């Protein structure tokens, strides 16, 4: 497997593209059939299918001013789990401060699945209120 497509390398490219708000680079990492699950009842919750919906979700998270801190990269046989901390403050004073695991399923060097596990589902839902 080429070094740039190892699961850890894909995970770091994912975080770099998101952090840089480089939507083209992020989209290039997604498989055509990507599925992204997010718990809760917020505007970013539910299942996103396909690169366009996944990019729409990433853009909405970024538009909320979310800052992502990487705590750990955990490599598995079929992908990578990212231990993260997300923080943000909305213009009206609402705060987001959560720990999460973002699990990337990697297939042929592309992200096929993203499953998000949150420490504060209600807090995320209140921050990204419908």
From TrEMBL:
Q: Which SUPFAM superfamilies match?
A: NTF2-like
Give the superkingdom in one word. Bacteria
- Its name, as the record gives it, is Nuclear transport factor 2 family protein
Organism from which the protein derives: Streptomyces pyxinicus
Gene3D superfamilies assigned to the protein according to its UniProt record, in alphabetical order: 3.10.450.50
The protein's matches in InterPro entries, at most eight in alphabetical order, are given as: NTF2-like_dom_sf, SnoaL-like
Instruction: Identify the Pfam families for this entry.
Output: SnoaL_2 (PF12680)
According to the entry, every stretch annotated as the SnoaL-like domain falls at 12-112
């Amino acid at each position: 497997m080429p070094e740039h497509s190892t699961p850890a390398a894909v995970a770091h490219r994912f975080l770099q593209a998101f952090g840089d708000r480089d939507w083209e680079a992020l989209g290039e990492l997604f498989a055509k059939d990507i599925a992204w699950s997010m718990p809760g009842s917020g505007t970013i919750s539910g299942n996103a299918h396909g690169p366009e919906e996944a990019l729409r979700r990433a853009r909405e998270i970024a538009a909320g001013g979310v800052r992502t801190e990487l705590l750990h990269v955990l490599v598995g046989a079929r992908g990578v789990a990212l231990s993260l901390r997300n923080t943000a403050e909305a213009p009206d004073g609402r705060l987001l401060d959560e720990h999460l695991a973002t699990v990337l399923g990697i297939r042929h060097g592309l992200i096929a699945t993203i499953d998000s596990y949150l420490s504060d589902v209600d807090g995320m839902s209140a921050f990204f209120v419908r």
